[in-house]
Q: What sequence folds into this?
């Protein structure tokens, strides 16, 4: 998810009452909710190599164990530094080391929990496993989550400033609404994928041998949370469609033929570091060639607006191209 969502999630947790457990509680929750994204520095590498490095080791179990410890030490050191300089705010609560560490863990764990929800993917077990996990339920920037989180924080803060005794309630309502929203979107995705799989299976001729199992992804859309972009593929072809919770499923009649199977992938990986990184990251690679020039894209990101950011082009030996043809 985007960092505004992560920050607001940390703020909502604080307004639910957690920030009152220790000094620097709110700051710790918000920073912890964002700290796994320190891997953003990999975007400086250029090209598409950062795709293979993002949402990996800094989102995995070792990072989830160590980052909160590191953050807790920094926050304690900051509090002591302000105290020595006489700059510590008089209204700041005393530091409770146990609670500060607990809030660092809560905020940090909220990050991969949210990142898992979209179709971009996250390697939850890195460095023990490089497997990607996908929730396919929430668009990477969700305006409705922004609205719910901002409302919860803003109303709660207003009540707190007025001295209301139930100032935490709006934040709890916001948290419950977000959980219900995520659950509902998960159900929509599950229904869309199940209906697509059933329809695709029904198109297979009874007389013909059943082909490879279809892979189906119901890709969330911005704003229109009740809709999904349907993406499907098997070893010989791929296609798309649309799902609307209120209208139903429509699959496009036009299909793409995968001219080159994964037999070609080792050759592409050897061609360049960018190609190797892209193949590692790609969930639904589409490999096409014109002459010796091979273009690799991912079905999830083939929109012209973002296509150049999620594609790689390499030169591959012609004999390898011929041998890879179906």
A:
């Amino acid at each position: 998810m985007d960092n505004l969502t992560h920050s607001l999630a940390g703020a909502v947790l604080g307004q639910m009452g957690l920030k009152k457990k220790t000094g620097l509680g709110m700051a710790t929750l918000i920073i912890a909710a964002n700290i796994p994204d320190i891997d953003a520095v990999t975007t400086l590498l250029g090209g598409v190599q950062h795709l293979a490095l993002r949402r990996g080791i800094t989102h995995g179990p070792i990072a989830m164990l160590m980052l909160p410890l590191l953050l807790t030490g920094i926050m304690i050191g900051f509090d002591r530094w302000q105290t020595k300089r006489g700059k510590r705010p008089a209204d700041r609560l005393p530091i409770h080391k146990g609670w500060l560490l607990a809030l660092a863990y809560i905020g940090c764990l909220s990050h991969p929990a949210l990142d898992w929800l979209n179709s971009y993917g996250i390697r939850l077990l890195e460095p023990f496993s490089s497997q990607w996990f996908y929730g396919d339920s929430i668009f990477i920037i969700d305006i409705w989550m922004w609205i719910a989180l901002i409302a919860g924080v803003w109303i709660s803060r207003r009540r707190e400033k007025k001295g209301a005794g139930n100032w935490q309630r709006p934040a709890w309502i916001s948290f419950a609404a977000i959980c219900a929203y995520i659950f509902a979107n998960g159900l929509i995705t599950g229904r869309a994928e199940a209906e697509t799989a059933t329809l695709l299976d029904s198109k297979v001729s009874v007389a013909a041998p059943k082909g490879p199992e279809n892979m189906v992804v119901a890709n969330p859309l911005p704003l229109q949370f009740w809709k999904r972009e349907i993406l499907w593929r098997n070893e010989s072809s791929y296609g798309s469609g649309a799902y609307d919770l209120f209208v139903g499923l429509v699959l496009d009649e036009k299909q793409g033929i995968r001219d080159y199977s994964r037999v070609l992938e080792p050759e592409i990986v050897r061609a360049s570091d960018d190609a190797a990184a892209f193949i590692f990251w790609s969930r639904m690679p589409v490999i096409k060639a014109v002459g010796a020039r091979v273009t690799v894209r991912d079905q999830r990101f083939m929109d012209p607006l973002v296509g150049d950011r999620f594609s790689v082009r390499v030169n591959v030996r012609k004999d390898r191209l011929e041998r890879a043809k179906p």
Remarks:
- The radius of gyration is 24 Å.
- The first helix runs from residue 3 to 15.
- The chain has ten helices and eight strands.
